[in-house]
Amino acid sequence: MRTFLLRRFLQAIPLLFGISALTFLLLQLAPGDFLNTMAENPGITVESIEAMRTRFGLDRPWHVQYVLYLKNLILHLDFGESFSRHQPVFQVLREGLLNTLLLAVSAAVVTWGLAVPLGVWAAVRQYSWVDKGLSLLAFLWLSIPEVLSGLLLLFLAAKTGLFPVGGMRSLGWESMDPLGKALDLLHHLALPALVVGLIPLAARMRQMRANLLDVLRLDYVTTARAKGLDERTVVFKHAVRNAINPLITLFGFTLGALLSGSFIAEIIFSWPGLGRITLDALLTQDQYLVMGSVLMASVVLVLGNLVADILLAVADPRIAYD
Amino acid sequence: MTETREAAADQTPWSLFWRQFRKSPIAIAGGVLLAVLYALAFLAPFIAPYTPEEMDRERYYHPPQPLHWVDATGRFHPGSFVHPTTLADPRRFRYEEDRSRVAPLRLFVRGTPYRLLGVPLDRHLYGVEAPNRIYLLGTDPFGRDVVSRLLFGARISLTVGLVGIAISFTLGLLLGGVSGYFGGWVDTVIMRSTELLLSIPGLYLLIALRGIFPADLPSQQVYLSIVVILAFIGWAGLARVIRGMVLAIRRQEYVTAAEALGMSRARIIVRHILPNTMSFVIVAATVAVPGYILGEVVLSFLGLGVQEPAASWGNMLNQARSQRVLTAFPWMLFAPGTAIFLTVLAFNFLGDGLRDALDPRKVLGGKTG
User: Fold this and answer.
1) Chain B contacts of A158, Cβ < 8 Å?
2) What does the pLDDT average to over B347-352?
3) Spatial distance between the Cα atoms of A76 and A83, rounded to a whole number of angstroms
């Protein structure tokens, strides 16, 4: 187990270097010298521009720049300076990242919380109207991209007034008691989490159904039934636990979809997350902020895959010994 | 010789596939719907009553006009008509139908001249006589006809997917093929690059790549840059699968035979190995097209893609972003929304049917869950 974890962890390191190299390359390819653009901004002093120039070696050849970029990144978590916000990039990103993770994790709860029971339901009632209805719904839902479902929910929220139409907190948030704060946050979180969580739902539900159907055909399930166990025990104690494994692997895979989905939900519902920051940064040509957030999102994805592998190894000991 | 060839042709994978495909009503429905959508896009200047940029300064946010058949005096109009409207509340853009007047719907009316395949024409499928105007799906904040924008937008939104797929699948096939066939360091380099691309969340990569193109490109170049970006992101996943398939195929005897005959490696990959991956590639491409279409929609929705005044489904959605527009002028969301939904649905239907038709297990007749 320990060697498996170690090996898996070491594999992630070159990947992270590769991602940093790619973001650096994109930074270089971006048009215009942004320090010049910065110099035109009266809000930025000549000293701070000079400080940036030396810190990132912007007047030196590109390989020196990359080494400096990496050094600042690893040693000081220094992603550079956000020009538009006059703050270190890391500081800007930290809060956005937490908000995005909150959204993505809630969305994952929505996805798995619905996909597993619905998938089981469809499988134990194979070919019934429940099964057919659920696959039809899944099929239709697969064809509604998050841009549409997001705007649709925003439309409903605005029409009914049941949910807030954007932001993360109500106006009087500061003066609420802790329970009120939590409820208010949940109230704001509900719609964006639903939008993001419903995207992978259809696919996961179909997978859960197919997995369970496969497992239910196996010999040990027949054995369990032959022993005289009731169907409920056979399905939930014996079959579901094995059928769920592939869904754990898919968690890492789904995380990418959840992050991308959060991006759109953040824009539509004005959720102050990483996606919003990235878009604003791109529109204001705040290069370091753009690259910092791309790097950050990728790190989350790589770590998420790592966690998924570890979870799978925990759930299925056969894997760690391979 | 010819006879045996013909008899064999009857049993080619293609004929088997076609027989299977025709049995799936869903796949046929998807295919027909797509044919209609692409035909509409191609015929856009003829079907659209107006040009996508034409502004009606007296009718901003005009709601969709219903067709009527019976007028105020009880007379029946077999060809249907609309009532001309007047602006009742300029602040809220509320319009009132003038029920005493009738603007009959006319077919093949003369309108703005246009060219279709180089032929100069001026007939439009439907319209009303000037000075009346017809807005079956309403107008946008600039008083432009939503039907016309939808049709012209389809030309961009629907073709981005096909062009993007063509580029990225060519790349994916070649790189995956080379990677699987040659192995060694070539394989390592290509596979590590795909891992790299796949470990950056899609939309973030999309945004970062958009950043290397200047913000204010002319619309032709925006189109090109979107296609290039989508293709750059899209090849990685396919290349990995193709590599796996090529690894299995290259050990087959006919490949060894081709090698022994002294055929060049490039020719072996292109002529003998890649064609064997085709059934998978066709399904994968069909299922992947919506992703590319949505890529354009998302970029334009975020204001980074096709720029005004040109129309695309994404930038039409962009205008529906605010809460005020959504509640007061919901057609701004539902018109492009329905178009996008139908397109994605049609591709999914077609892809599902193709997968069933190309699935070798299906031939056994067993119904798989």
Assistant:
1) 323, 326-327
2) 88
3) 19
